[in-house]
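Example (one chain per record):
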Amino acid sequence: MDRITISDLEVFAFHGVLKEENVLGQKFMVSAQLYTDISEAAKEDDITKSINYADVCKNIELFLTKNTYQLIETTAERLAIHLLKIYPRIDKIILELKKPWAPILMTLDTVSVIIERGWHQVYLSIGSNMGDKEANLKEAIRLLEEDEDCSVENVSSFVITKPFGGVEQDDFLNAALKLKTLKSPSELLTLINRIETALKRERIIHWGPRTIDLDILLYDSVVIQTDTLTIPHLYMTDREFVLQPLSEIAPWVKHPIYGETILQLWNHLKKN
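Predicted structure:
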């Protein structure tokens, strides 16, 4: 991926554990690698199609001087997330925050923290078979979009599907959606659980009726298996209500374990 690099931008700010650092201030130095696609800007010679590094530098200075944190770890984290949110063209940032005058009563050049943060591409399955099904889906999508660390980028058509698991119940209304998020998988799971609770999801009967059901299908191309979370979703390749809407919005996305596209997996399932 292309990147724009800012090296050792000097900013006088008020961050540190000691009270004197918060009052008197000190010099900090910021370096940032901004990962983005510059091909369109380069072809058209158009700054609006790229990231204006002068503007980024001004925003770095403004953020560091307006806020005060004790740890440079916190300062670097908050600054990186701030830049990702206000510049949609930045896909990932590697940020180094240097503190040249660290007060440790010893001679040293700088103390620094280097962090890497970026947007993640996630696909979710969403379904409902109680109450106003369509309203339930739309409200869950709205709550996802409302979270400051998430952006819903695409939503499939809503499809009616038969319930799975042998429990007698009403048909489901299902969809799939593409989500851009800064959250880790566990943080995203916490958000999903909170949305399900807000929409009165009750886990009484396994595979039973529910007002809302949200599942993480894919998170970038990572493979995760813990006591609370499995990614890719364990049963996604066997579920028509998952693959049908997912193939509409992500036909060429590959399953990180099987190596086949979602469309291929959907075609296999339809043949069985």
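Caption: DSSP finds eight helices and eleven strands in the chain.
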